[in-house]
Design brief:
The structure holds two protein chains of two kinds.
Chain A (H helix, E strand, L loop, with lengths): L7 H6 L9 H9 L3 H23 L2 H18 L10 H21 L9 H4 L10 H10 L4 H12 L4 H8 L3 H20 L1 H8 L1
Chain B lengths: L2 H6 L1 H5 L5 H13 L1 H22 L6 H14 L8 E5 L2 H10 L5 E4 L6 E5 L7 E9 L2 E9 L8 E8 L5 E7 L7 E8 L7 E8 L9 E10 L1
Antiparallel strand pairs in B: 1-2, 1-10, 3-4, 3-10, 4-5, 5-8, 6-7, 6-9, 9-10
Classes of the chains: A mainly alpha, B alpha+beta.
Chain lengths: ~200, ~220
């Protein structure tokens, strides 16, 4: 695969070995002020945070604010993250969810009543588990090989056809097709049998 | 076309990227091959999840903005991570109330480094205080500074609370004061305390009762932004 032939965003995603680094190791680097590690985590999880914001708050502008707030918290609280207690994705999800409640409260310009469940007051607020799929996907995407992530990113996030991906990467069309399928199957395995894949990844 | 080759085409199939001939052959194969059918279901699930994720793409410029903000906020004082909107009763509210027909609190947005002021009750008119807060992990870390607090008896202590109008409270911790009724202490409460709009400091008897049963010495009001 040729990162040079990709879009700036894709080059950015491949400009370091960060891709192979587990979330929890990245957080440790963030605690030391590593901006590249921070941006790698952003690239992995800004989508589910943003999606959570849109889903809970029903407002794109507030969802952007949620992304900024959540990742600012990551930057500031990275030192307090304990990987033995929770996965990074779980930790970030809690931060995002709590911040969404705060943003919703501010929007409504009134403090919550005591005993009132904040999430119930958020428009369309689901139970926490309902937001997990996108988070699992984001985590799984960070665990597949670069060449797999590349074809999926180009196809789904940059909207390229298989033929366009072939041209851009210089990889034969037939290979792109089979690689796309292999990448999807791999993602499915990670999401349905995470422990097996964790072991392999480590 | 071989069995393996059919399996390889499932991704492009759900993306609608097969040639009409490939599509026909694959669909014919799927009718007879249960393992490929199972794989197709898995691939469909991933396809839908990816499409949903792609539809939730934040604006590209948000990446740089987020980094700038994270770094910017960290470079200010450590305790300026929370912004507070502080609601304090003002004499001017009476005038507004006269016009609007209900009591109104004037809202003031303080500079984060200013913290939230605590005002004295009639029990300790000389007392004052200030609270600054930050969320660290699952907790709300608070720095409380007080002055002019009445001298405590041996079997008494001060306690800071987050509370609501119905009387529900979350304790943020206890403390004693030094000369001049002054002290600065670091206290902690569950992050959920942020949903409580009021702060108070009470003078508690050391009687083993963890509930708030002492007199209110300081109070403040806030809504966290």
């Amino acid at each position: 695969m040729s990162a040079r032939s990709c879009s700036p965003g894709w080059e950015r995603a491949f400009d370091s070995k960060m891709k192979d680094t587990a979330d929890e190791a990245l957080v440790r680097r963030v605690a030391g002020g590593d901006e590249r590690a921070f941006l790698e985590l952003y690239d992995r999880y800004s989508r589910p945070v943003y999606a959570t914001g849109v889903r809970l708050l029903g407002d794109a502008q507030l969802a952007e604010e949620l992304v900024q707030d959540a990742f600012t918290s990551v930057w500031q609280a990275a030192e307090s993250f304990e990987s033995e207690r929770a996965r990074f994705s779980t930790w970030l999800y809690r931060i995002a969810r709590n911040r969404a409640v705060d943003l919703d409260r501010r929007r409504r310009v009134r403090p919550l009543s005591v005993g009132e469940d904040p999430l119930r007051t958020v428009a369309g607020g689901p139970e926490p588990e309902a937001g997990v799929d996108g988070w699992d996907l984001a985590r799984a995407l960070s665990r597949i090989p670069d060449e797999h992530r590349e074809v999926l990113t180009l196809a789904y996030f940059e909207g390229l056809s298989q033929r366009e991906i072939s041209r851009r990467t210089g990889v034969p069309l037939g290979t792109i097709k089979s690689r796309t399928t292999a990448a999807m199957k791999r993602l499915h395995r990670i999401m349905t049998r995470p422990l097996d894949e964790e072991t392999q990844h480590e | 076309m071989s069995e393996d080759r059919f399996g390889d085409l499932l991704g492009p199939y759900v993306l609608g990227e097969l040639t009409p001939k490939e599509e026909r052959e694959l669909e014919r194969h799927l009718e007879a091959c249960s393992s490929c059918w199972d794989e197709l279901r898995a691939v469909w699930g991933i396809h839908n999840a990816l499409r949903e994720a792609a539809a939730s793409e934040p604006p590209p410029e948000l990446r740089a903005r987020t980094l700038a903000r994270a770094k910017g906020e960290s470079s200010s004082t450590a305790l300026s991570r929370l912004r507070w909107t502080v609601w304090v009763p003002m004499a001017a509210a009476l005038l507004v109330a006269a016009v609007l027909g209900f009591g109104l609190l004037r809202s003031i947005i303080y500079d984060p480094s200013d913290g939230v002021p605590l005002t004295a009750t009639a029990l300790a008119p000389e007392a004052g205080g200030e609270v600054r807060g930050e969320v660290v992990g699952e907790n709300l870390q608070v720095e409380l500074e007080v002055w002019g607090m009445p001298e405590l008896r041996e079997n008494e202590y001060y306690e800071m609370w987050y509370y609501a109008e119905d009387g529900s409270r979350i304790s943020c911790g206890t403390f004693r004061t030094g000369p001049g009724g002054r002290t600065t202490v670091n206290l902690s409460a569950p992050a959920s305390a942020r949903s409580y709009p009021e702060i108070e400091v009470t003078r508690e008897p050391d009687d083993g009762n963890p509930a708030a049963n002492g007199d209110e010495v300081l109070r403040g009001s806030l809504v966290q932004l």
